[in-house]
UniProtKB/TrEMBL annotation:
InterPro entries: 7-CO-7-deazaguanine_synth-like, Aldolase_TIM, rSAM, rSAM_sf
UniProt-annotated binding residues for [4Fe-4S] cluster: C29, C33, C36
Record's cofactor remark: Binds 1 S-adenosyl-L-methionine per subunit.
Protein name as annotated: 7-carboxy-7-deazaguanine synthase
SUPFAM superfamilies named among the record's database cross-references: Radical SAM enzymes
Source species taxonomy: Archaea, Methanobacteriati, Methanobacteriota, Stenosarchaea group, Methanomicrobia
Domain Radical SAM core: 16-204
One function term, GO molecular function aspect: 4 iron, 4 sulfur cluster binding
Length: 204
């Protein structure tokens, strides 16, 4: 697999926010989002080719049984990723996958919780909203919002595509958090407002 980095930090987002976590960041992405946290990982060539055995050994050396697979877009490497996740799940790992919502994820749902990032207008990209039908109770959906147009878009999609999993509204780092919070407070929707913890405390 093309691996950009493997590192240990705190989970900054999602249902396991604040937990110590091993991150497996794969290289290569099929989008070019304006708010990308890791633009250096977009190109597959930015990664280093590692075997599944090498990746497994590095993950085990981190000493935590919680893994987040991110990117880039990790599901671009589905053929190699799915068997690795199956093995890690069998070894007792809790696994999250962060995906941009453009690639079907059913093959990995038996082994991992999906965190689907639905792209809002300010990102400059679009997700495949039909994939929301596959979000389960252990999965989650995230809307990264920068302005009122993003909030209006998120509101309409949440209303028209209900999911059993958790729904997060995540303000873009440095945006007007108070204004976004005030708007979300007015919604009668089952959402959680969430700031990116890792950016607040200044870690990767």
């Amino acid at each position: 697999m093309q691996v950009f980095e493997i590192f240990s930090s705190f989970q900054g987002e999602g249902r396991r926010q604040g937990m110590r976590c091993c991150f497996l960041r794969l290289a290569g992405c099929n989008l070019g989002c304006r708010w990308c946290d890791t633009p250096d990982a977009r190109a597959a060539a930015a990664g280093k080719e590692l075997s599944s055995a090498d990746i497994l050994n590095r993950i085990e050396a981190m000493g935590t049984r919680y893994l987040c697979v991110t990117g880039g877009e990790p599901l671009l490497q589905m053929d190699e990723l799915a068997p690795l996740l199956r093995e890690l799940s069998a070894r007792g790992y809790a696994i999250d996958i962060e995906t941009n919502g453009t690639i079907p994820f059913c093959l990995v749902q038996p082994y991992a919780s999906i965190s689907m990032d639905v792209k809002c207008p300010s990102s400059g990209e679009q997700s495949d909203l039909t994939l929301l039908a596959d979000i389960g109770s252990e999965d989650s959906v995230k809307y990264v919002v920068a302005d009122n147009a993003d909030l209006e878009y998120a509101y309409e999609q949440i209303r028209s595509h209900p999911v059993p999993g958790a729904i997060f509204i995540s303000p873009v780092y440095g945006s007007d958090y108070a204004q976004i919070a005030e708007t979300v407070m007015e919604w009668d929707l089952p959402v959680r407002l969430q700031l990116q913890l890792h950016k607040q405390i200044g870690v990767k």
